[in-house]
Each structure stands twice: as structure tokens, then as C-alpha cells.
Write a structure and sequence with these properties.
Length: 415
């Protein structure tokens, strides 16, 4: 039985939660990554929570909370607020247990997340512009509908459920001396830290937040946070940390690190290429933090919690393209040429000779300030790396063409 004292969640509570979850959630693998270890200088293990049925760790805490309800509460049902992962975790396990569920989601939640939640049998209500608005609406509805509120992070049962991740990680790799965990409201990192330090007192637990949503980071430093409008790491875009996290963070968490949007995007691409796994922004933030703080973790045995893989396919496609541009494998080059027969063929021949594959061509004669009988042609070409791009530009210049590279945010040219 999990402690009802929010600040008093213990290792025993997490171990009890693990018994509740046994055979009902996926015991996801914790695997060593040779390539990421070489890339970062640390020995890196990844906990693949994106392999849960709903592709997120949120199932763990949701199920432990639902299992704690008495018969009367189960009969009346539950209500939750979420923009995606918590919604699906609550809806899925409520359906399994025969518990009616109402989920309040922000009105601009992507339709695919809304439909997935409905597919698990939950009633979905759309309210507010973001998570905080949806949560407020759910809390207002709970007493009038006589529904039990299932908090996404500020509940001792939920915290204990999330902490089971650490039990599995240390069982798979007892030698870990550090863990990096994404932080939104703080339920995940609190549960992981309680379990990890309960099993191994010397282990250090680090959190990571988006620089656009530094709630716990600023709270621990006593500074006023400034928030961005949105983040690619929407799963941790939480303005106010939970009371459980605030009560335990000082004793359990070594530090909170911040990462920028570009860091997270690059980490998503690296995980896709290296580990062949899809990570949502909040999950990839852990790798982003490790890469950004290489020296801090050099030669250490580090576990990364890959918290989920729910990312919109169109968003993922855009991130991959931006990642290719950052790494010099996709380049946008504008070439000025005489508007005469054969000129374009000479350019494309030069590109072909150097092995630059043309992906897009835009020919501009009208909307330009160039002299008459001169055209601007923009090429998007597939290249090998930044050195190859420079080689292509040099060859175009040597062939008598005036060319220029359009920089991409995050490329070497822009740094």
C-alpha cells in the first residue's frame, strides 16, 4: 500500500507499485549504446519506455493510481487532464479495469491524440488553450461529476508507479552511477530518485527541462521563471512543479539541466539514426542534456530515461529534414547564371560530378534584382557533410557561377 503522505513516498512504496504493475505493463529493456557512449565519452544505457503499449511511461503511475481506488470510486469513474501521454495511459488502463474515464484535453490537442484516447473508451472533453487550463477545468468538474481526479504527476501513487523505472534500470545495470530524467511536473524524477537512491545511496539523479519551461530549475534556485509559448518537448512543458517534487527535490536531485530546442531536435535525429528508435521531444531531452554536458558525465555510467515516443509524424519529418540540414547532409544553394540555353545543364553537371544529388530546383527570372538575361536558381541538394557542401560551392565558383549557401539555424555556419 502506497503512503498517503505526498512527501513520504518510499522505496517500499515503489516496490509495492512494481507488484501492482507486474504483467500489466511492459518491462521495457535497458540497453547499452556503444555508439552514444563513443559520442559522449560516457558509458550510456537507455531505458526504452517508448516501447510501452501507449508509447509512454505514464501508464505506470496511471495504473497504480487506478488500482488503489475502492469499489465505489471505480464504479463512479475517474477524470484526468492531459495533452496526450497521461490521457492515453489513464484511458487504456481504465478500460482494462472497467472504470469509466473522462479526459479533459486542451482544445488544440492534435486530433490523432484525441482519437487514440477515445479509442480506449474514454469520454474526451476539449477545454482551454493548454495543459494548465485543461487541468483547472478537470478539477472543477471532478466534484460535480463525483469523479476521482487522477493527477498526472502530483499524487503519491503516481510517483511510486513512475519510480518502478529505476528498479528495472538498476536490476538490468547495477553499475549505473548517474541517471538523467526528463522533468515536467516532477512526478517521474521524484519516483525515480526515491527508488534509485533507496537501492544505491551514492547514485546521482539529474533532471532536464526545456529552457522554455524551466519551472523546477528556477524553483530550486529561487528565481522567477520566464516561459516560452511552446516547446518541441511538450510532454515537459509544465509551468509549475508539483508539491511532491518541491518537497523532495532538494534531498534527492543532484541538479536540473536546461536544454535548447535545437539540442532536443538534434537528439531526436540521433536517436532515430543510431538507436533506430522514435523519441518524442521530452524523451530526447535526456540525450540532449548528456551531449550538452559531456565533460560532467565523462567516463561515468549513465542511464537515460527515454520516456516516450508519441510524436506527430509530420513534426518528426520536419525535424529530420532540419537535422539533415544542420549536419550538412541537406543544403540549399542559390546560383546566379546567364539565362541562356545550356547554362542550367552546366550547373547540374557540376553538381553531379561532385556527387551532390538534386532534391529540389526553383528557377527564378521575375522576382529578382539581377540584370536581364540573368536568372537565379535555387537548389536543394543531398550532400555528405559540411566539408562536402564547401567542396560543392568551390566547384561552382571555379566553373564561373556566383553561388551562395543559405544557412540553417543550428548549422556550423550559424554558430
Amino acid at each position: 500500500m502506497v503512503s498517503s503522505d505526498a512527501a513520504g513516498v518510499t522505496l517500499r512504496d515503489v516496490q509495492s507499485a512494481a507488484q501492482v504493475l507486474e504483467s500489466h505493463v511492459v518491462h521495457t529493456p535497458t540497453l547499452h549504446s556503444r555508439t552514444l557512449s563513443e559520442l559522449t565519452g560516457a558509458q550510456v544505457w537507455i531505458k526504452f519506455e517508448n516501447l510501452q503499449f501507449t508509447a509512454s511511461f505514464k501508464e505506470r503511475g496511471a495504473l497504480v493510481k487506478l488500482a488503489s481506488l475502492n469499489e465505489g470510486q471505480r464504479r463512479k469513474g475517474v477524470i484526468a487532464a492531459s495533452a496526450g501521454n497521461h490521457a492515453q495511459g489513464v484511458a487504456y488502463h481504465a478500460q482494462r479495469l472497467g472504470i469509466p474515464a473522462v479526459i479533459v484535453m486542451p482544445r488544440y490537442t492534435p486530433s490523432v491524440k484525441v482519437e487514440r484516447t477515445r479509442a480506449f473508451g474514454a469520454e474526451v472533453l476539449l477545454a482551454g488553450d493548454g495543459f494548465d487550463d485543461a487541468k483547472s477545468h478537470a478539477l472543477e468538474l471532478a466534484p460535480s461529476l463525483r469523479l476521482e481526479f487522477v493527477h498526472p504527476y502530483d499524487d503519491p501513487h503516481v510517483v511510486a508507479g513512475q519510480g518502478t523505472i529505476a528498479l528495472e534500470m538498476l536490476a538490468a545495470e547495477p553499475g549505473l552511477d548517474a541517471m538523467i530524467v526528463p522533468v515536467g511536473g516532477g512526478g517521474l524524477i521524484t519516483g525515480v530518485a526515491v527508488a534509485a537512491k533507496g537501492l544505491k545511496s551514492g547514485i546521482e539523479v539529474f533532471g532536464v527541462q526545456s529552457a522554455r519551461f524551466p519551472g523546477l530549475y528556477c524553483a530550486l534556485r529561487g528565481t522567477a521563471p520566464e516561459f516560452g509559448f511552446s516547446s518541441i518537448a511538450d510532454g515537459i512543458a509544465v509551468r509549475e512543479p508539483g508539491r511532491i517534487a518541491m518537497a523532495r527535490a532538494g534531498e534527492l536531485i543532484t541538479d536540473i539541466m536546461l536544454v535548447e530546442e535545437g539540442d532536443i531536435e538534434e537528439a531526436i535525429v540521433v536517436l532515430l539514426e543510431v538507436e533506430k528508435t522514435v523519441a518524442e521531444g521530452a524523451a530526447a531531452a535526456t540525450l540532449a542534456a548528456l551531449v550538452r554536458n559531456r565533460r560532467r558525465f565523462e567516463r561515468r555510467r549513465v542511464g537515460l530515461v527515454l520516456s516516450g515516443g508519441n510524436i506527430d509524424p509530420l513534426t518528426l519529418a520536419s525535424i529530420v529534414e532540419r537535422g539533415l540540414a544542420r549536419s550538412g547532409r541537406l543544403a540549399r544553394i542559390t546560383v546566379e547564371l546567364r539565362d541562356l540555353p545550356g547554362s542550367l545543364a552546366r550547373v547540374t553537371s557540376t553538381l553531379a560530378t561532385l556527387g551532390a544529388n538534386i532534391e529540389e530546383v526553383h528557377h527564378q527570372r521575375t522576382f529578382t534584382h539581377l540584370p536581364l538575361q540573368t536568372a537565379e536558381v535555387e537548389f536543394v541538394v543531398q550532400t555528405r557533410n559540411h566539408d562536402h557542401v564547401r567542396e560543392v560551392l568551390a566547384a561552382l565558383d571555379a566553373a564561373g557561377f556566383n553561388s551562395r549557401l543559405h544557412g540553417t539555424a543550428g548549422t556550423d555556419e550559424d554558430r
